[in-house]
Amino acid sequence: MTWCPICKNTYDNEETFCPECDISLIPGNKDEYVEIFFDKNEDIALKIFDYLEENKIESANYYFDPNEKVYRILASLDEAEFAKQTAITSISDELTKDLSPSEKEAIGYQMKTMLNNISPTENESSIFVSANEKYKDLSSSASSLILVGIIGYIVLILHKFGLFTVDMTKTAYTLFFGSMVIIFAIFIAMGIYTLSKAKKVKSSISKEETLISDINTFILNNIDIEESNESCTDDITEEEKYIIRLEYIKGKLFENFENLDEALADKLIEENYYSLYPESEEFFS
């Protein structure tokens, strides 16, 4: 099977060219590929693509996107992380020494995007979790731990009074019974400790909800759209505009809200982005 990266249509293996988009097809399925890099400058994209090929990244594919008017590079899922790291390496002084300052600035946005996406584990750890969600998780964990401990003690008590028996030697029974008493005590102690943490988190829910409401109001009422678009020229892509606007809004939030969690800032900016820039919704939908 082959597929077209523009119209996303799939074809038999014998087909090598998309008749609708006039572009070479990519082997496999579109779900097996991710984007590694994009830029409006063909020379930059070609240099990075050549660097990927030199480093034996066989799944790398390069094409021009006529809708966004940018050049895109794809790689298969199994080579994606290595391809991103290789692309970042290529965006070095050695590769960019012959580029103009404006060209270096342009690919700086792409480098930042790739660095943000290169480590899924690190990204996941920066996802904002509300105090209300933390409270629910902690309360659930505490209840489960305490419940297991109590049920364990009930089973031990029933066994002690002979309501059911387990065939084992006296020594083995003593070791087993003693171990279970300690283990179930630990479960209950951990449950009580987790419950105390849940109560502390619960006390911060109202304060956090007020903060979120204040930030949402600030974003919608105090962000200067024209000022945030000053660096968004017509020759840059929507992805580049998004990064520029994101950094602008984030800067304003940090100026007005002391000790603001960056993950919370990112979440609220993303939630309000289309309200500020409705014309961008069609590009990311």
Overview in brief:
With 285 residues, the protein is mostly helical. The protein has 12 helices and 8 strands. The chain has a 3-stranded antiparallel sheet, with no helix packed on it. Strands 6-8-7 form a 3-stranded antiparallel sheet. The protein has a two-stranded antiparallel sheet with strand order 3-4.
Describe what this molecule looks like in 3D:
A hairpin with a 4-residue loop joins strand 3 and strand 4. It is built from 12 helices and 8 strands. It is flat and about 80 Å long. About 3% of the residues have low confidence. With 285 residues, the protein is mainly α.
- Report strand %: 5-15%
> What is the N-to-C succession of helices and strands?
EEEEEEHEEHHHHHHHHHHH
Instruction: Name the shape in a single word.
Output: flat
Percentage of residues assigned to helices: 55-70%
Distance between the termini: 27 Å
Low-confidence stretches: 117-125
Number of strands: 8
The description of the largest β-sheet is: 3 strands, antiparallel
In terms of structural class, how would the helical and strand content be classed? mainly alpha
| Arithmetic mean of pLDDT | 83
Strand order of the largest sheet: 2-1-5
Instruction: Give the count of helical stretches.
Output: 12
Rg computed from alpha carbons, rounded to a whole number of angstroms: 28 Å
